[in-house]
Structures are given as C-alpha cells and as structure tokens.
C-alpha cells in the first residue's frame, strides 16, 4: 500500500472513529441517565441492586463472548474478506450459518444456567441474602443473553459493511426501556418490594427484543435476510468455530475476571457490589467511547491490510489507533483522579444513594483508574492477532493474566475490600497489554512499540499539567463562600464542569505546545465529518 493510501486509510479510520464515538457517546449518555436513576431508586447498598447487578453480569458477559468479543473477532475478518471481493451472497450465507450456530449454543447455555440457578435459589436456603436473591432472579435475566448476542452478530455484520453508527447507538434502546421501567416502579412500588425487582428484570428481555428488531431492519436494507441454516460440515463454519474457540477462552478470561470480581464482592457485602458497579460504569465510559470505538473501526481496516499482505499498513494502522486512544484516555484518567469524588456525588448522590456510597465508590474508582489506559488499549492491542486470524495467542496470554488476577483478588480483597478487586483488575490488564505487545513484535517484527511509548510519555506530561490546573481550579472554587450556599447538586455541577473545562483547555494547549499531531487530526476529522 502506498504512503498516500496509508494516509487515506488513517483519515478513514479517524472519520469512522469519531462517527462511532458519537454513536457510543449517545449510548453512554443514555446509560449514564439510566445509572443516575438507578442509583436514585435502588441505591448502592441494598440487596436488590446487588442481586440484580450480580445476576445481570452473567448474560452481560456472555454478550461480550458470543456477541462482541470472540465471535466478532473471528467473524468480522471473514465477512470483510467476502465483502472486499464483492461476494455478498457468500457473506450472507456465512452470516446465517454463524447466527444459527450461535443461537443453538446460547439457548443450551442459558437453559443450563437458568435451570440450575432456579433450583438452587428456590430449594436451598443461603445465609447470604444477596446470593439467595441473585439465584432466584437469574432465570429471569438469563434469556437476555440470546437477544443481545444476536444483536452483537448483526452489529458485527454492519461493521463489516462499514456501517458503525447504528450498532454504536443500539444500546440506547436498552437504556430507554430501563429508564422507563424505573420511572414506572417509582410510582407503583418501593425499592424493597420483590415485585419491583422482578419487573425490572423483565425489562431486560423487552429491551433485548427491541434491539434485535432495530438491527434486523438495518441489515435488511443491505439485502440480508436471515435463514435458519445449520451447516456444521461447511468449510467456513468449521474455520469460524476453530477461530472462535480460542477466542472464547481468551475473551472469556476478561469476562470471567469481571464475574469473579462480582461474586467475590458479594462476599464482602452489598455495598462493595454497588461500589464496584458504579465505579466500573464510570471507568467504562471512556473505555467504551475510545477503546471499544477504535477497536470496532480498526479491526476491519487491519483485516483489509492483512488480506493484502500490507505489513507496513498494519503497523501504521496499529500505531495510529494506539496513539489516538492514549490521546483521549490519558486526560480522562487525570481528570477523574482529581475530581472523582465530585463526579460521583454529582451524578449519583441523591435518593437512596447516600454520601457513604459515594466514598465507597470513589475508593474503588481510584484503583480502577490505574488501569484505565490499559483497559482502553486492550481493545486495540488484540486486533493485529485477530486480523491475521490468530486467536490462540491472546487466549494463552489471557489465561495467564486471569490466574494473576485471581491471585491478586484473593490477596488484596480482605485488606482493601472492593479497592483490592479494582487494583487486581488494573495490574492484570497492564500485564496483558505488555505481553500482547511483546508477542505482536514476534509475529510482526516490522512493528515497534517505541512510537507509541514516546507518544504516551508526552501525553502523560500534558495530562499531568491539565491535572495540576484542574486541582488548582477545584481548590480555588472550594475557597469561595458562595459555593457552600448553593444546593448540593448545583454546587457540585459548578465544581465538575469548571474542573473539566480547565483540564480540557490546558491539555489541548499543552499538546499543541508539544507539537503533537492529535489535536490537528481530531479537528480535521470532525471538520471533514461535518462537511460530509
């Protein structure tokens, strides 16, 4: 690929990233509204919220395995190859066969987990009330895994067709249904009423069905019609399965870590589950906006370059993706480090979410922030392996990191409670990133991490300057008398947005002063997107 073609590919990546980020931003804003209402109604220390968050972790993590993670990483390169060769009939056939196999596997998993949890929840008595309630509602939330995984497969198909916006905003449907349900519950039931919890669980199924309908409509516009087609002997289906299986184990490591964190948090008490849940939501706002978005748009581009045996193109695409993610993720880390307590209180501290819950949540958030850049970069660091259809190496690395995470969890949780679980996740994620870089260099010797590391050092310095300016702004506003006379939410809003604005302005000026190309690329992509 020529240098001019590489530049065009980077511009296309930039436009796709910011289009996808805009869609994910809408999803995250609606998700934030859902979390605010959920915190207000359910709180962060009660049994109901802890039980729901623990039970929902199972279908939610199955989505990351069978809908977005391993499935997408194996499916997108194969679909992209067919579409790049203008073989749409072959692409549609592969999609129907893949979704059919996905459906059957998921139905079996959901049935086994639901039946087992239902029997255990209603026939046995557990000393821990949170564990008892979790098992009882599990059969109600597990079917959501089927709908959301099909949505993930349809979204992967749209991504292969270079359609990123609808897959990015489809989560808005889920958030809107849950927001409406919480409002309904407020007028009809108290948050300690078991009926309220059952209705809230049922809203997840309704949301999953609506998500599928929206994506089916979008796929039909491209000419795709789903047909039940179980072709286990098909060469492509077998190849897909062989690539998915290692990916399932590799991606499953990350998801299993999340489930382990939730289960261990139940042992620490419902307040630890709530703190982990809300701090995790804040952390995954930038991860979703930048890491997931860039991972979505970079994988098809890397797959195209890999199919053309353009090793230099793969290297440049990877470096651009990592550099762009760090440019966006590092200032978020700095901002939340200095203003995390105020952000949590501003967003969630009302109703059943009390000041003690804010402190518990911020305690976990501080240790999650150590790994925030790694969480974001991990979404891109695995893409070169997936683009060359190597799902085994990330699997082996992930298994090793899972063992490290479990050891750290058991070592730290008793002294640091939920903060120990967060710190374990951060350390194991950084280890995962480092090992992926090392092995990527082995398979792709043309690639070097030096440009990314140099960029990270400069961007860290710019983020540190922004953090100092933001801390000074906070201190200055706290010293003013009028802030204490304001209502709590208004005063916190002034603090948060003043600090955010200061950090953003100082960070951008610092990047320009250090002659970083990212601000120019950012505004250039936004300008081109606006003209389009």
Can you walk me through this structure?
It is a single chain. The model has no long low-confidence stretch (mean pLDDT 81). The longest helix has 40 residues, at 3-42. This protein has one domain (3-531). The two termini are 25 Å apart. 86% of the residues lie in helices and 0% in strands. The chain has helices at 3-42, 47-68, 70-84, 88-123, 129-141, 144-160, 165-169, 171-188, 194-221, 235-268, 270-307, 311-348, 355-369, 372-381, 383-387, 392-416, 418-443, 450-478, 482-485, 488-513, 518-531. It is mainly α. The protein is built from 21 helices and no strands.
In a nutshell, what does this entry contain?
This protein has 532 residues and is mainly α. The chain has 21 helices and no strands.
What attributes does this structure have?
532 residues, mainly alpha, 86% helix, 0% strand, globular
Kindly estimate the percentage of residues that lie in beta strands according to DSSP: under 5%
**Count of the domains:** 1
Count of strand segments: 0
Low-confidence stretches: none
Average pLDDT across residues? 81
Helix content: over 70%
Q: Mind summarizing the main beta sheet? A: none
Taking the alpha carbons of the first and last residues, their distance comes to 25 Å
Number of helices: 21
Order of helices and strands: HHHHHHHHHHHHHHHHHHHHH
What's the alpha carbon Rg, rounded to whole Å? 23 Å
